[in-house]
Every structure is written in structure tokens, then in C-alpha cells.
Design goal:
By secondary structure, this protein is mainly α. It has 3 helices and no strands. Helix 1 crosses helix 3. The longest helix is centred in the last third of the chain and has 14 residues, at 56-69.
Amino acid sequence: EGCELKTLASLLEKATGTRGLLDWGTRPRPTNDPDTLVSDNSRLICETSWRPEFSLEQGLRDYVAWRKQNPG
């Protein structure tokens, strides 16, 4: 499942309790940038039967909580 970088950054802001640190749209996007770029993990899924156990948002929240408890 694809996720826009802006969405990922917003989820990180939410998980860390920070807001307004990013200023979207202040620089023009290069004309040669693709509209979308999403990785293909089908080989991982097919060869290992791996499936995500939780959502991206939950994973980010858990990681931020873990980092707060383990700052080193």
C-alpha cells in the first residue's frame, strides 16, 4: 500500500506530538520528479509469506514510544 511522503511526515508529527515543523510547498517540485514512486514488496510476500501485523500509523506510534524509552 503506497503512502505519500507528506502523509508519512504528518503521521510522524502526530506520533511525536509535534506540529508545524514542516513547511510544504515552499520549494517548487523538480519537473523530472515522478508523480508517484512506490516500492514493490510482492517478492517479499511471495517468498516469505510475510504480512504486516499492524498499520503504518500504529508502527510509527510504537517506534516513537520505544525511542522515548530507549533514547541511546
